Amino acid sequence: MLVRGKHILTSADPEEIKDGALRIQDGIITEIDDWRLLRSKFPDDEITGGPNDIVIPGLINAHGHFSEALTTGIAEQYTLWEWIQALVARTAPFLDDEMAHVGTLLSGIQMLQSGVTLVNDMFVYDPLSPKAATPEVVKALEKIGLRGIVSFGAGDIRSDITTKKLLKEHESLAEAAENSKLCDFRVGVATLGVQSPELFKETINFAKEGNFGIHIHLQEIREEVTAIRNNLGFTPIQYCAQNGLFDFPTIAAHCVWIDSEDTNILADHSVGVAHNPMSNMILASGVCPVPELRGMGVNVGIGIDGAGSNDSQNMLESLKITPLLQRVKHLQATALSSRDAFKMATIEGARALCVDKEIGSLEMGKKADFVVLNGNSPVLANVHDPFQALVYCAGTREVKEVWISGEIVLKDGEVINVSSEEVVERSRPLAIKLVKSAGLSNLSSLF
Fold first, then answer.
1. Phi then psi for 378, rounded to 5 degrees?
2. Please, what is the Cα angle at 138 between 26 and 249, to 5 degrees?
């Protein structure tokens, strides 16, 4: 198959190929070159894309929570510290396997519609029932054809769940991911503040024994840093470094309230950072020092975050707001460019997650994860600079096709493998059940 575009944005060298094409064979990019040259070389190949389209690598959602899929648009009056208690802690005991499955489908469809081909997810809940819920995340991702790095956000401070039970959930999710074609596993740490010393120690042992990477929230708000410093004598980043967590490939979400010492530690330990601009604004958490981190060599990806904290699951919104937020913070138009944001959402996110050898850019030998944007839409009618057009102009209506490993999973804005209407209908009674069980009826108009 040949994938044609007026602008092929590679996230590699060269950054752009005008009037170019990719050749895909067995799910792999085998050639990238001028359209006319490849067409003459392979005259019998099928063609997708078109002479006015923009072709980009699949976007990487570096941090999210499918566990929040049924609580979108609720509890806006809380900052993060309050929101965790008012929403997450109250819904966590009532999430089950069906909610995990349908919620993943619901959020996953929105991600595909905004050009996401890989999501790094942390499912945060209290595993009280005998049946593990997190393997359903993997099953749902397989169903819609979305690539995932999955983790369970373990914590034992707010409940009486044993360390053994929490480790069993990790094991169940790791096994599901191992048997999946699209998913990989990381050990999740919700935050240091919700883990006992015993659980933190066993988490590190589990990662060591399985040779797993780590997915953790770090220094999202001032209160978190203050509480850990008071209890443990260090910032969360300093504590993780001293106690061996960063010995494993680590992706750290947020990293808003950090100082120069924290930044140096992240750089020295090659910790990737997932920047979540939308949820940081909605929950009044602050602004991640993205230019400073990148300047120190830290790989920074862009995360959508969960549907209870963003609340949209639209990656293109997060892509656009990333440079805008830094410009407002620094009062400087050059604080972060559209090209910077594009790299963060593609190859830099892949590096932060240690998957850049396979995906994150359009290069020969890499997996054929790519997105075709409709160049005949009014929004993209006149593309003066394709990077600015993508970051500042494009929306979900411009996402014409999404391909993962050379398989089409979204066409003309609609997912291929599931019925969006059926997923929506399945989600409604589950959302009502969850909100009612959690005692949040006063916050919801579903009743």
1. -55, -35
2. 85
CB–CB of 377/408 below 8 Å?
no
pTM (2 decimals)? 0.97
Closest CA to 156 of 129, 125, 186: 125
Q: Which residues of 316-336 are buried (b: 16+ CB within 10 A; e: fewer)?
A: bbbbbbbbebbeebeeeeebb
| Residue 380: DSSP 8-state | G
Q: How many CA atoms lie within 13 A of 367 on its CB side?
A: 19
Tell me which residue of 97, 191, 184 sits closest to 149, measured CA to CA.
184
* Mean predicted confidence (pLDDT) in 297-302: 98
What is residue 160's predicted lDDT score, i.e. its pLDDT?
Answer: 82
Rounded Cα gap, residues 5 and 35, in angstroms: 8
221 within 8 A of 79, measured Cβ to Cβ: yes
- Residue 444: pLDDT band (50, 70, 90) is confident
The residue count for the chain:
447
